[in-house]
Each structure stands twice: as structure tokens, then as C-alpha cells.
Amino acid sequence: MKWWKYLAAALLLYVAVAGVLLPVPRRNILNETIRNLYFHVPMWFALTVVLAVSVGYAVAHLRTGKLLYDVWANEAAKVATLFGVLGILTGSLWARYTWGTWWTDDVRLNGAARALLVYGAYFVLRASLPDPQQRGRIAAVYNIFAFAAALSLLYVKPRLNDSLHPGAGGNPAFSKYDLDNAMRLVFYPAVIGWILVGAWLTQLGARLTLLRNQLDEQESA
């Protein structure tokens, strides 16, 4: 079924147009940069969902030993990492125009960077294990702990410390003061659209990897 792919494309096209043209609340310091909410925040929603999918496949691989699940877990982790990189880049750009610097010693920003490093180690670990079964089992166990660490770094620790970032350290999130009804008409479709794109990219990556594995098996036969 391809309907959800068309939906993803339609939602992101709508977000790209409406995110630029529709009116937004006028807030001190933020001004027009508040439109970045449509692109920066959904990246982290999509990252969280895709990481959860990756962990789900990792658990399935541990239970069944099927390499198919390991492939899906790895591809989902790749897509989630891509969303993390895009989230940091859009956040850094936003910080430049609101905080006056590309990066600051903020608990949420540093936590996001550390979470990406945790998954960077996941890919290094996979690359160091040539045996597919051993790689799948060890990577799956690491994936579970990496997911728990990422949730802590992204969502738990920031709320326990002071932070400039909305929704952390007692600083209210956008939904409390700035995300009005007009912005919700764009924000929620953006979240759904990016999650669907994450599923799409994961599916493409898994199919390409499985096809590559089949070709390698045919060549070695």
C-alpha cells in the first residue's frame, strides 16, 4: 500500500507552504524564527518514534534470531540518527538568531549531541563484528541500552536541570504559550509527515540492504 507515502509527501508539501505563509504569534526575540518550530521539533518526534521501531526490531531479532529483523533495526537507527543530525542543525540555526550563538553549554543541546554519539558507537560496534549472527545479537542488546540512554539524555535529564531550551528545566514548552491554534494546524501535520518519511526511508534502506545481501549470496554461490 502506497497511500501513506502519498500522505507523507502531501503533508510535508503543506507544511513547507503553510509554514512560510500562514501567520504566527509575535513573540519577543523569536519573531519570525518561531516558524522553525515546524521543522526543528518534529525531527525529534520522528527520531523518538523511529528509534522505538529500531528497538522493537532489535528485540524481535533477539527472540527469533532472524537477520531480517537486524537489518530493519539497523536501518531504523540510521534514519533516526539522520533526524538527530537535522534536529541539531535546525536547532543550531535557531539558536544563532535567538540566543546569539550557534551552540551554548545547555543541557538539552549537549544531551542531544551525546545521544547521537551513543548511536555513533552503535554503528562502529556493528562495523567491528564480521559475523552476522554475532553482530545482530550484540548490536540488539546495545540498541536497547542505547535507546534508554537516548531517552534519558533527550527528555529526562533536561527537565531536571536549568535550561534555555523550551520544555526543560522549568522553562515552559511552546505548547503552553506560543503554539496557538493556527500553528497547531501546521505543527501536527509536520510531526505526522516526518514520522511517515522516517518509515519510508527505513523501508527503502532495508529493501536495499536485503537486495544487496541477496546479490552477495548469489555471487559467492
Structure, explained:
By secondary structure, this protein is an all-alpha fold. The protein is built from 7 helices and no strands. The chain has helices at residues 3-21, 37-64, 67-98, 107-127, 132-156, 174-177, 181-220. α2 (37-64) runs antiparallel to α5 (132-156), α3 packs parallel to α5 (132-156) and α3 packs antiparallel against α7 (181-220). The longest helix has 40 residues, at 181-220. The radius of gyration is 19 Å and the shape is globular. It starts with a helix and ends with a helix. The relative contact order is 0.17. The mean pLDDT is 87.
What structural category characterises the helix and strand content? mainly alpha
Major sheet summary line = none
Percent of sequence in beta strands: under 5%
Q: Return the average pLDDT rounded to an integer.
A: 87
Report low-confidence residues grouped into runs of 5 or more: none
- Principal-axes geometry comes out as globular
Order of helices and strands: HHHHHHH
Using the CA coordinates, give the radius of gyration.
19 Å
- Per DSSP E runs of 2 or more residues, the count of β-strands stands at 0
First-to-last CA distance: 34 Å
Total of helices: 7
Helix content: over 70%
Q: Can I get a quick summary?
A:
This protein is mainly alpha-helical and 221 residues long.
Task: Summarize the SSE layout with pairings.
Layout (H helix, E strand, L loop, with lengths): L2 H19 L15 H28 L2 H32 L8 H21 L4 H25 L17 H4 L3 H40 L1
Which key phrases capture this entry?
globular, single chain, 221 residues, mainly alpha
